[in-house]
Design a protein that fits this description.
15% strand, elongated, 50% helix, four-stranded antiparallel beta sheet, 3 domains, 9 strands, Alpha-Beta Plaits, alpha+beta, single chain
């Protein structure tokens, strides 16, 4: 794969802006390095861009030309070599695909997960709307990768196994009371107390992140129905019953 490099100088006021962590910043250096990457595939330039973001290297793309500060030349050379050596699998043209919403992710989170998919050999691309597009045949592998990625990047404190089981049991008991009587004082009081504990902790070992967060979301919805007075008897009982059934299979 071919590429060219050259050094340029410009007046500080005329310098192009460079990008760091998705934000435009102005470089203090008047010397820049330009990498001509026109012969690279777009997927390979994407890999390089993700590596630059992960290493927090300020940069800007002018078409297929990469521009970095002179002081970042050495690390840029290393990352270009790494990107060249990376074989990025691509989606099959006639394959059935599925999309995952990732628009709320930061640039570094998106870059980190993309690098994980490259290491796993899973083909992917991002849509114009920012969604992750993968082949339907890779759904199970993607779900596993997403779950592991979410746990690693979850900064909430963790409950140990016994505390988590106790918490889920208490949430189940409160939901079971509410599905029988939506005005049960003990049930209302307990779900109001337990829900913050549930959502403020990351999933313990052995419980999938999506399942844990889904339980937290259902608990929040139930609390909102109870506290805002917006839910009628059947709605509250239905919400409590649905959450209780999920917890019954876990406790």
């Amino acid at each position: 794969m071919k590429w060219g490099k050259r050094q340029t100088k410009s007046e500080k006021s005329e310098q192009p802006e460079v990008v760091e962590d998705g934000k435009n910043i102005e470089s203090d250096s008047t010397a820049e390095i330009e990498y001509e990457l026109h012969e690279w595939a777009g997927e390979t330039r994407l890999v390089l861009d993700q590596l630059l973001i992960l290493k927090e290297v300020p940069h800007v793309w002018q078409g297929a030309t990469l521009v970095v500060r002179e002081e970042d030349e050495e690390v840029a050379d290393q990352l270009i070599e790494e990107a060249e050596s990376t074989s990025l699998p691509t989606l099959e043209a006639d394959a059935e695909t599925i999309e995952y919403e990732t628009t709320g992710w930061s640039d570094s989170e998106q870059a980190s997960f993309s690098s994980l998919l490259v290491r796993l050999g899973i083909p992917y691309e991002f849509s114009d709307e920012g969604s992750l597009v993968v082949q339907a045949s890779d759904e199970e592998a993607i779900e596993t990768a997403l779950d592991a990625f979410q746990v690693v990047n979850d900064e909430r404190p963790e409950l140990d196994g016994l505390d988590a089981n106790s918490l889920l049991t208490e949430v189940f008991v409160s939901c079971d009371r509410l599905r029988r009587d939506y005005r049960d004082d003990a049930g209302v009081g307990e779900i109001l107390r337990l829900t913050p504990l549930l959502v403020e902790h990351r999933p313990p070992f052995g419980i999938e992140a999506n399942l844990w967060d889904g339980i937290g979301k259902r608990a929040i919805d139930l609390v909102e129905l109870l506290s805002e007075g917006s839910g009628d008897e059947e709605e509250i009982k239905s919400q409590a019953s649905g959450l209780a059934e999920i917890l019954r299979s876990m406790t």
